[in-house]
Design goal:
Strand order of the largest sheet: 1-3-4-10-11
Number of strands: 16
Radius of gyration: 21 Å
Oligomer: single chain
Number of helices: 11
Distance between the termini: 19 Å
Low-confidence stretches: 174-188
Strand content: 5-15%
Largest sheet: 5 strands, mixed
Mean pLDDT: 94
Length: about 450
C-alpha cells in the first residue's frame, strides 16, 4: 500500500490510485488518461509571481490546500515560496512581509486555515451600501472587501453545477455535455467554458499574469481538471473502502450525472421525482458483524443511512425557505434530509445553481480574525452584519447576501478545514454545526457514524 503525504518535487507524473495520507486514512486520485501528468500548464507558472494552478490545488490535499502542508512549506522556505504572495495570500495586500516574523503574521489566515483573500468591491448598482467595516487588518473598504475563502478542489468536476463559492464563474445557458463515462452517459454539469474562464481569471489574478492564457492553455487545463476523480480509498478503521463496497475514486467515473439530476422539484432530464437516497456506496456494509474492522464498516453504513434518511426541519435558509427561485415556492419550514441541499447522487453537492445561506457567514459566528461588514438596504434601510456577503457581491441583490454554493462532498477527509471560510476545523465540527443549526438531535453514536461516513467519501 504505497502512500505519502506530499508529492515528490522531482516527479513528472503520479500513478493512478497513488495514496496520500490524511486524518482518516488515505485518499487517491484516478485519472482517465491513465496517470496524473504533473508537467502540463496546470503546473506551469504562467503568471508573473511564480505560482501555478498547482500552488493552491495539491494532489496530496485532495486538489485543495491544507494548513499543515502550508505551514511546512512556510518553514522550508521562510515564507518565500510562490504560495506566499501578498496579492491574496496575505491578510491584506499592503501587509509587511520584510522579515520572517512579519511574513508569519501577514500570512496567518493562510497558515492557520488555508484561506485565500479574495478582493471584491460592492457593485455600483447594488441594492445595498457598506455602512461599517471592522477589519482587523485595516484594509477592506467598499472598493474592495476582503473575503477569506478556501480554495475549492479541482477534481470530481463532473459533479459541478456552479464554479466558485459565489458562482462568479458560472455562465447560465451554456451547459452541454462534452465528457461521457465509460457507458457513454453524460458526466458533466458545468460547461467547459466556465472552467476555462476560471483558469484564465485565476492566472490573471492569483498568479498576477501579464496576459491572458491562450485558448490551447485553457483547453489543456480544463481537460486535465476534468480527467480527475478523487475519493477516500482507505479508512484507518474500516480499511479498504473498495472491499465489498464502492468506495475509492474509480467507482465515481462510472456514475452518470448531469445538470439538474435528482433536483428537489424533479429531475431536469427524466422528470423523475427527487429521492433523498444520495449515496449507496457503503450499503453493503450494513450490519457488518464483529468488532474492529466490522464495527468500523457498520458505522460508515449507518452514517450513510443517516445522511439519506434522517429527517431535518429546514427553516431560516435564504434560497430555500425565502428568497428562493423555486416554483412553486418552498414553505417557510419543511422536513427534508441532508439530500435536500446535497442532492447530486454520489457527489453530494447541489445539482443546479442554487446558492444558499445557512448562516456560516453570520455575525454571530464571526471569529476575531475575520472582518465584519455592516450592509444597509438602500430601499428599506434594514441592516445585515456578515463576514462575507457571498453571492450578493456578484449580483448586487440584497436577497443574495450570505449565499454560497455547496461543495462536492467526495474527498472530504483530505481538505480540512471546512465551509467557505474554514469555520469547521474538522468533520466533527461540521456535524456539530448542522446538528445545532437544524436541531437534528443527534446522539453520540449518530454523530460518530456521520463523521465516519463523511470521512469515507
Amino acid at each position: 500500500m504505497p502512500s505519502t503525504s506530499e508529492v515528490d518535487s522531482a516527479s513528472t507524473s503520479l500513478p493512478n490510485d497513488q495514496r496520500f495520507a490524511n486524518p482518516r486514512g488515505f485518499a487517491a486520485t484516478f485519472s482517465t488518461t491513465g496517470s496524473v501528468d504533473l508537467t502540463g500548464p496546470f503546473f506551469q507558472s504562467l503568471g508573473t509571481n511564480g505560482r501555478s494552478c498547482g500552488s493552491c490545488h495539491q494532489p496530496a490535499d485532495g486538489w485543495s490546500i491544507t494548513p499543515p502542508h502550508i505551514q511546512a512549506l512556510f518553514d522550508r522556505t521562510n515564507g518565500t515560496d510562490p504560495m506566499f504572495r501578498t496579492v491574496d495570500g496575505a491578510n491584506a495586500p499592503n501587509a509587511d512581509v520584510s522579515t520572517v516574523a512579519a511574513r508569519r503574521a501577514a500570512y496567518s489566515m493562510l497558515l492557520t486555515k488555508g484561506l485565500i483573500r479574495v478582493g471584491i468591491g460592492i457593485p455600483a448598482d447594488a441594492e445595498f451600501t457598506l455602512d461599517a467595516v471592522d477589519d482587523p487588518y485595516h484594509f477592506a473598504s467598499a472598493a474592495q472587501l476582503s473575503l477569506f475563502r478556501r480554495p475549492l478542489p479541482t477534481t470530481n468536476l463532473g459533479f459541478l453545477s456552479t464554479v466558485m463559492w459565489d458562482g462568479r464563474e458560472t455562465f447560465l445557458g451554456t451547459d452541454h455535455c462534452n465528457h461521457t463515462n465509460e457507458g457513454g452517459k453524460c458526466f458533466e454539469s458545468v460547461d467547459p467554458f466556465d472552467l476555462a474562464d476560471q483558469s484564465n481569471g485565476a492566472t490573471l489574478g492569483h498568479a498576477q499574469g501579464a496576459q491572458s492564457l491562450t485558448a490551447q492553455q485553457q483547453a489543456d487545463i480544463v481537460a486535465f481538471e476534468t480527467s480527475l476523480f478523487t475519493a477516500q480509498i482507505y479508512d484507518t478503521g474500516a480499511r479498504e473502502l473498495t472491499a465489498n463496497a464502492q468506495g475509492g475514486p474509480n467507482h465515481i467515473f462510472t456514475v452518470a450525472t448531469y445538470y439538474g439530476i435528482n433536483d428537489n422539484l424533479g429531475d431536469y432530464q427524466t422528470g423523475a421525482a427527487f429521492t433523498p437516497v444520495i449515496f449507496t456506496e457503503f450499503a453493503s456494509w450494513a450490519g457488518s458483524p464483529g468488532g474492529g474492522v466490522g464495527a468500523a464498516r457498520a458505522s460508515i453504513a449507518r452514517g450513510e443511512a443517516l445522511f439519506n434518511s434522517r429527517p431535518i426541519t429546514i427553516s431560516g435558509v435564504s434560497g430555500l425557505n425565502f428568497n428562493s427561485p423555486f416554483t412553486p415556492a418552498l414553505p417557510a419550514s419543511f422536513t427534508g434530509t441532508c439530500g435536500t441541499c446535497h442532492d447530486t447522487p454520489s457527489g453530494g453537492n447541489h445539482s443546479i445553481v442554487a446558492p444558499l445561506d445557512i448562516g456560516v457567514a453570520d455575525a454571530s459566528r464571526r471569529t476575531s480574525d475575520m472582518p465584519l461588514y455592516t450592509l444597509r438596504n438602500k430601499t428599506t434601510n434594514a441592516t445585515v452584519r456578515t463576514t462575507d456577503p457571498g453571492r450578493a457581491l456578484i449580483t448586487g441583490k440584497w436577497a443574495d447576501l450570505g449565499k454560497f454554493k455547496g461543495p462536492i462532498l467526495r474527498g472530504l477527509a483530505t481538505r480540512a478545514p471546512y465551509f467557505h471560510n474554514g469555520l469547521a476545523k474538522d468533520l466533527d465540527a461540521v456535524v456539530d454545526f448542522y446538528d445545532q443549526r437544524f436541531g437534528m438531535g443527534l446522539s453520540a453514536q449518530d454523530h460518530a457514524d456521520l463523521v465516519a461516513f463523511l470521512g469515507a467519501l
